[in-house]
Amino acid sequence: MRMRVPLARTGYSWCAAVLTLSAICAAAHGSLDVVDARGVRVRLPAPPRRIVSLSPGVTETLFAIGAGPRVVGVTRYCDYPSAARRIPKVGDYMTSVERVIERRPDLIVADLEANRKAIADLMKVAELRGKLFVVRQSGFADLFRSIASIGTITGCDSGARRVVRRIRSTLDDVRRRVQRLRHRPAVVFVVEVQPLWVAGDKTFIGEMVEAAGGRNAARQTGEGYRSMSVESLMALNPEVILSTHATVDELRARPGWSRVSAVQKGRVYRLGFEAVRPCPRLGSAVRQLFELLHRP
């Protein structure tokens, strides 16, 4: 069974909604003063008109809160909404400082974990240093804070509040459904197959699994993304395996994997990368995980 489960693209209406939010943001005026995830105070004389985003999750947030029309630079992996694909690229995993400068930004938004090198490189450029705003998106609470802070630094507070309310409402609905469950399946999220890496404790993916009513069986391996042997995975014997790339047929062909319960029963689900992205579609992603984990 080859199953890829894409994240539904019904999180927001990108026509009238974005234009309305954009108008609200454009009406904001005055100076902005916000402390970012580094503890650095970023001061802008007015809401930014030219924004560069260095991560897909940040790009989605900017569009969701209404600042999308002001985004002038993104990464190659910023693919949602569709309008983001047409924006000039400033790099992929590696950011080109030269391309960032070419976009003449008055605000650059980066992710503390995903863009460590880019942040260090951009800080060396005096003309960009005061325009760099960093967020952290390593967990649900971090994501909510990052959406709020991006809303403030772009002058789109009301749009940010609406997005957070929508996410929380969907998560609350899933939480009520989880409370009625009699069984929470053991789940392992496989990041890489060879060598084997899994999502351990205190990871964004692990938090999603728990919110969807699963038990992250790999929590006991430690915090963060951890390497482990196939023998150790067999000992965990997860009922469900999630991955962004592996399929049940591929795993069955590997030594030892056919003895894992999830592989035997065909409960290996290949998700799209966007399904585990820290972004405003978090609520929809958790709801879809719930449906996968608790199929009869």
What is the structure about, briefly put?
The protein is built from twelve helices and 13 strands.
Using brief descriptors, characterize the structure shown.
Rossmann fold; four-stranded parallel β-sheet; alpha/beta; single chain; globular
Nearest-integer average pLDDT: 91
Q: What percentage of the residues does DSSP assign to strands (E)?
A: 15-25%
**Unreliable residue runs:** 9-21
* Alpha-beta content class: alpha/beta
Counting DSSP E segments of at least 2 residues, the number of strands comes to 13
CATH topology of the largest domain: Rossmann fold
Distance between the termini: 17 Å
Query: CATH homologous superfamily of the largest domain - what is it?
Result: Nitrogenase molybdenum iron protein domain
Major sheet description: 7 strands, mixed
CATH class bucket of the largest domain: Alpha Beta
Determine Rg (CA atoms, Å): 20 Å
What is the CATH architecture descriptor of the largest domain?
Answer: 3-Layer(aba) Sandwich
Number of helices: 12
What would your notes on this structure say?
It contains 12 helices and 13 strands. It is globular. Helix 6 (140-154) runs antiparallel to helix 7 and helix 7 packs parallel to helix 12. Helices cover 38% and strands 16% of the residues. Helix 2 links the parallel strand 4 and strand 5 (71-73). The strands form 3 sheets. Strands 1, 8, 9, 10, 11, 12 and 13 form a 7-stranded mixed beta sheet that branches. Strands 5-4-6-7 form a 4-stranded parallel beta sheet, with helices on both faces. The protein is of the alpha/beta class. It has helices at 16-26, 56-65, 97-102, 116-123, 126-129, 140-154, 157-179, 204-211, 230-236, 248-252, 261-264, 282-293; strands spanning 4-5, 32-35, 41-44, 51-53, 71-73, 107-111, 132-135, 186-192, 197-199, 215-216, 225-227, 240-243, 268-271. The protein folds into 2 domains: 16-166, Rossmann fold (3-Layer(aba) Sandwich), CATH 3.40.50; 182-293, Nitrogenase molybdenum iron protein domain (Rossmann fold, 3-Layer(aba) Sandwich), CATH 3.40.50.
